Each structure stands twice: as C-alpha cells, then as structure tokens.
Amino acid sequence: MIETDICIIGAGPVGLFAVFEAGLLKLRCHLVDVLPQVGGQLSEIYPKKPIYDIPGYPSVLAQELVDNLMEQIAPFNPTFTLGERADAIERQADGSFITTTSDGTKIQSKVICIAGGLGCFEPRKPVIENLEQFEGKGVSYMIKDPEVFRNKKVVLAGGGDSALDWTLYLADVASELSLVHRNSSFRGAPDSAEKVQALADQGKINLILNANLNKLNGNGVLQQVSILNKDKEEMLVDTDYLIPLFGLSPKLGPLENWGLEIENGALVVNTKDFQTNLEGIYAIGDINTYPGKLKLILSGFHEAALMSHGAYRYINPGKVLNLKYTTVNGVQGF
Length: 334
Description:
Helix content is 22%, strand content 29%. The mean pLDDT is 90. The chain has 7 helices and 21 strands. It has helices spanning 13-24, 40-44, 62-73, 161-170, 190-201, 297-315, 326-329; strands at 2-9, 29-33, 50-51, 60-61, 79-82, 86-91, 97-101, 106-114, 120-123, 153-157, 176-180, 206-208, 211-218, 222-229, 234-238, 241-244, 248-251, 262-263, 266-268, 281-283, 288-289. The chain is an alpha/beta fold. Strands 1, 2, 5, 6, 7, 8 and 20 form a 7-stranded mixed sheet that branches. The chain has a 4-stranded parallel sheet with strand order 12-11-10-16, covered by helices on one side.
C-alpha cells in the first residue's frame, strides 16, 4: 500500500505543477497515469510542438516544459505509478481514500486530485478483424520497457513523432525492425523523418510506405503481419511484436462511475478550491468545468495553486496557513 497526502490522477503539466504547489505546503504527492511516462499529451502526442502562452517563455517546446516541471518538483520527491489506469476509489472510515489501479496497485491518500487532462487516454486502434485476438500476445499499443523487444522482430505502424522516435530507438534493440506508414511522408519532426529514412537507406530497418495493416497471423501468439500496398498487393512480414502508434483518444474512463457530477464530459467544480461535488476530491486542468472556464495550461497552473491550499485546509481543519513566497524563502525554505 502506497501512502501519501494527495493522490494526483494524471501526470500531465497541470498535475506536475500541483506537486510543486502542494510541496510548498509540506504535502506529499503520488501521481498515477495510464501513460508509461509523465507529461500527458505534451510528451505522448506533440513533444516537439512549441507552446506560446506560458508566462516567461515566449516559446517553449512541449517536452522542454515537462522536463522543466520535473526539475522544479524534484525537491519535493513525488512518487509515481505509471502505465496504470486509476480504476476505482473507495472512501475509508477515517475519511481517507484508497485508489486502486488497473494493475491492482493501491494508494491511500487524504485527498484526491484529478488532473487527467481530457480524460483517460486510450490507444487508437487500427481496423484489423482479428486484432483483439493478439492483444497481449504480440500486439501492444505502448512501449513501457524497450528491453522487452531486445533481439526480437518488431513491426511499428504510424507516421507521427511517437512512431519515428521509437523507430530510431528500437533500431539498435530489435533484431529486425519494420515501420509501416500509410502515406509517403511523415507528420512528425522532419529531422526524425530524415534519420529514419537514413536507417532505411542503410538497410538497418525495413521502411514500408503507402501501405496499410491488413490482418494478423499466428498460433496463439503473433507470428506474422499481412500488409497491403496501395495496389492492394500483399506483403507478409514475420514478427514477434506489432506496435500500432496511431495516437491516443481521450475518454473519461472509469471516473464516470465514481459519483462525480459531470457536465458535457467534464467534472463540475467550484472556483474557490476546485473541489468536486464529492468532499475531498478535487479536479484541475482540462478535465474540469465551471463558468468562464478556459482550457489553457496556464489556467490549470492557477487551479493547481488554489486546489493545494484547499486540500491543505481540508487535511488540517482549523490550522492557520501562513502564505510564504518562494522569492523570499526559496524552495528549500519550505
């Protein structure tokens, strides 16, 4: 059992900044995210996209912002459960909560803060008739541990940054690596695309363009991928793993069943401390809604600050909170 003050569901930029604001108040945080790394959409979907509305940064790359946030919260020693979905919450007799993940991990906390962005991300799956038959038996939608693919035959599919970046990484890990993309050009960073093409030219990977996944073959586990080119000609590729990287689709997921008030797919909160209709459960960032809501990262940062103060008062009823400033004390002064 993991014990903490605040269980933050969602490790995107707003959830990460909440660690900083809570840390200033001596509150410990544990973060849960279904993605295998921190950063939410910023890291998973557009890590190299510039962001222009972060105060003090005329322009900052999405991944750079995540890296800076991780550096900022490091002094407060947050802990993480990544690659697992928060499936259920249960209020205890003492008022605390136990959050249980899809892998059975249990986190006991005094309050819960939902910072899930647009919700629980689910992979966009290719349209293949027998796809589900091989899920967990060769078909995977995320790469948690690249070493799993050491000296294995791997087929990646996709044309964005994630597909390109993993192609570059796994080229030195897999025994055979193929990248399948339905177009002749990529959506990802030009520099990454050039490096992938160079690997193909050197014969280090098999680059299959203007083609689509067709069907999967195997006896209990995946053994072969059928691919059709633009002329509907079939190509058979022997493989141990197929990893479709077609992006993620946001959904509210299990929290729809937690008794929270939902309006237009978002959690209704007050604007005093961003508490939901359930006492002790807060929601910040794109997942919440209230009059005048702006779905901006900077708005989420503001919400994280007020949520942290609200959580402190909830955890420490009647205790006077003296607001300090980092410009005077510095982070270590807290």
